[in-house]
TrEMBL record:
PROSITE patterns: R3H. PANTHER family: PROTEIN JAG (PTHR35800), RNA-BINDING PROTEIN KHPB (PTHR35800:SF1). It holds the Pfam family R3H. Residues 106-170 form the R3H domain. One of its GO terms (molecular function) is RNA binding. The keyword 4Fe-4S does not apply. This is Single-stranded DNA-binding protein.
Length: 170
């Protein structure tokens, strides 16, 4: 192995270790939150697409955890930001950690991927750009990925919180 290869492999391992550390810090923070709120949930950690991913899942149907999701995921978004701040406080580094509660984000990702694929199909059929409704950054990213997978390109336009995706013809 050359020195460059060793260095690149070590850097990849360092990144994984850093992301695993973020997940551990986030899990500890969220366990404390669940205890304070007197909610039951298991915490699952993973590393996906160069970011730590933490999920709170329930073995009793997740009705209690819906309180932590809130209307349209608003509470989930706030908890994700608080968890990122807790990680930042411990590590000194900005975190891109992704939090999911009771499968909300996973379900939302599937719905948005389908929306992106349908919009891409419409653009391919009509040759006209399609503007979608305003979305959060997470939602826009999922749609952009689905449009790219369909072989088209897309852009975000507008200002937060009214920023939206435009699917463009090839």
């Amino acid at each position: 192995m050359t020195e460059g290869t060793t260095s690149a492999a070590a850097e990849g391992a360092d990144t994984l270790t850093r992301l695993e550390q973020e997940g551990e810090i986030a899990a500890d923070y969220l366990e404390g939150l669940l205890d304070i709120a007197d909610l039951d949930g298991d915490i699952d950690m993973d590393v996906e697409a160069d970011r730590a991913s933490v999920s709170i899942i329930s073995d009793i149907g997740g009705r209690d955890l819906q309180k932590l999701v809130g209307r349209d995921g608003e509470v989930l978004e706030a908890l994700q930001e608080l968890t990122r701040l807790a990680v930042h406080r411990e590590t000194g580094d900005r975190s891109r950690l992704m939090l999911d509660i009771a499968g909300y984000r996973a379900k939302k990702r599937a719905e948005l991927s389908e929306l992106g694929a349908k919009a891409a199909a419409e653009v391919k059929n009509t040759g006209e750009a399609v503007k979608l409704n305003p979305m959060t950054p997470f939602e826009r990213k999922v749609v952009h990925d689905a449009v790219k997978a369909a072989g088209l390109r897309s852009e975000s336009e507008g200002e937060e919180p009214q920023r939206f995706v435009v699917v463009l013809p090839a």
